Amino acid sequence: MSVTSTPPTDLLYRQDPELAEILLGEATRQSTTLQLSAAENFTSRAVLAALGSPLANKYAEGYPGARFHGGCEIVDVAERVAVRRAERLFGAEHANVQSHSGSSAVLAAYAALLRPGDTVLAMGLPFGGHLTHGSPANFSGRWFDFAGYGVEAESGLIDYDQVLALARTRRPKAIVCGSISYPRHIDYPLFRAVADEVGAYLVADAAHPMGLVAGGAAPSPVPYADVVCATTHKVLRGPRGGMILCGRDLAERIDRAVFPFTQSGAQMHTVAAKAVAFGEAATAAYQAYARQVVVNAKTLAAALAAEGLTVVTGGTDTHLLVVDPAPFGVDGRVARGRLAAAGMVLDTCALPHDDARGLRLGTAALTTQGMRETEMPRIAALLAAVLREERIMVRAREEVRELAGGFPPYPV
Ligand SMILES: Cc1ncc(COP(=O)(O)O)c(C=O)c1O
After folding, report:
1. In terms of CB atoms within 10 Å, which of 114, 281, 313, 356 comes out highest?
2. Is 51 annotated as a binding residue?
3. 3-class DSSP string for 278-345
């Protein structure tokens, strides 16, 4: 079978062909479709090696040098390396690398800083806030009193006047800045000034831009926020997981909020894989990748606008962009379905000016595959042709397969 297979599937094939087929099927799906989701990427083989290593067998509750379990002397070193690399990469006084996910990191940040019932100001979900920013379906909305700021309907930019006005009237204990779909840089100094005026903590949920920050391609929230939460996947291209950065003053509270308050055993194979990803992110090659991610996103935004899609905020500063397919007579949900049939994988998201859903796209995975400015107009033209129903679907799928085939994520 000709697939860009990464996992050592031979052994799995002999023991469990049913699961091996599933793994190979997913590897084939990833290498023959276009991963336009702003939240996804292809990790290196080195990251996958750490994830599939015997560290997966190790129980390690606690922190290096102070574990509940025996036999932690080796994994302690792995965690110390991961922490040191994260602190150096982001210029932070303290890093906690144990959070199992971005949501767990946010939960721990709230646990460290807040009490149930406290008021928190965050981007409202209809404007691009994450579930952990006050959704009634999430612990955040259930346990805290969230006030939501939004974006201006016309420009799609954060309504900083509203942030200030809400902060003054609601007197939040914490202000959260960060979003699942905001394509522009966030004004961290301004959020810091608002937080200082009302005596609130500033929590930056930088899950999306943190990979750009690591590569010097986006401003860092670290000098401004009391606590920075992030995922280690997405643009950062590490394993699925979370991390928290903070100053020395909050280090102990953050560590205790992660363990023992919200988690017990750390996943040491993931912690080791995070260390590998941080090591990769400290290289010049990674900086070039981060810059290219942004160049590709800007090029894709301009090309989609030229094809007639409405690009929210008129473009992007980052890896992600939001478009409204309404000019093509479809909403985001219908558009996503059509594009999926053609092998173009992306997500829907909120639109600032409408109740209908838009489309969220990102360029991190494409860039990791080696695509550059030349490929972006081709992708935009294909996407528009599929939405206009100009292309027979089978033909569009073939074109996507051919394009993706030229940039295998795991070349053999
Ligand atoms: C802003 C933001 N916060 C938190 C998360 C949660 O990350 P995870 O899915 O790893 O829990 C995400 C992920 O989409 C996110 O975009």
Report:
1. 281
2. no
3. HHHHCCHHHHHHHHHHHHHHHHHHHHHHHCCCEEHHHCCCCCEEEEECHHHCCCHHHHHHHHHHCCEE
Sign of the CA dihedral 237, 239, 240, 242? negative
Residue owning tokens 């016309």: 154
User: How many of the other CB atoms lie within 10 Å of CB of 175?
Assistant: 26
Q: Is the dihedral of CA 349, 149, 210, 290 positive or negative?
A: positive
**355 part of the active site:** no
At residue 221 the predicted structure's pLDDT band, cuts being 50, 70 and 90, is very high
Residue identifier of the C-alpha nearest atom 8 of ligand 1: 102
Nearest CA among 278, 176, 185 for reference residue 225: 176
Strand, coil or helix: what is 176?
strand
Which residues surround ligand 1 with Cβ inside 6 Å? 39, 101-103, 106, 130, 132, 178-180, 205, 207-208, 231, 242
Q: Locate 77 and state its tokens.
A: 């070193």
Q: Residue 186: phi, psi to the nearest 5?
A: -90, 140
The continuous run of DSSP H or E covering 231 comes out as strand 227-231
Active-site residue, selected from the candidate residues 6, 33, 231, 232:
231
Give CA angle at 69 (67, 72), nearest 5°: 70
Active site residue 9: no
Domains of the chain, CATH where assigned: 50-281 (3.40.640.10), 284-405 (3.90.1150.10)
| 231 is an active site residue | yes
Mean pLDDT, residues 277-304: 98
Counting from 1 in the atom list of ligand 1, the atom nearest the Cα of 178 is 1
Does this model's pTM top 0.85? My answer is yes
pLDDT tens digits, one per residue of 342-377: 999 999 999 988 788 999 999 999 999 999 999 999
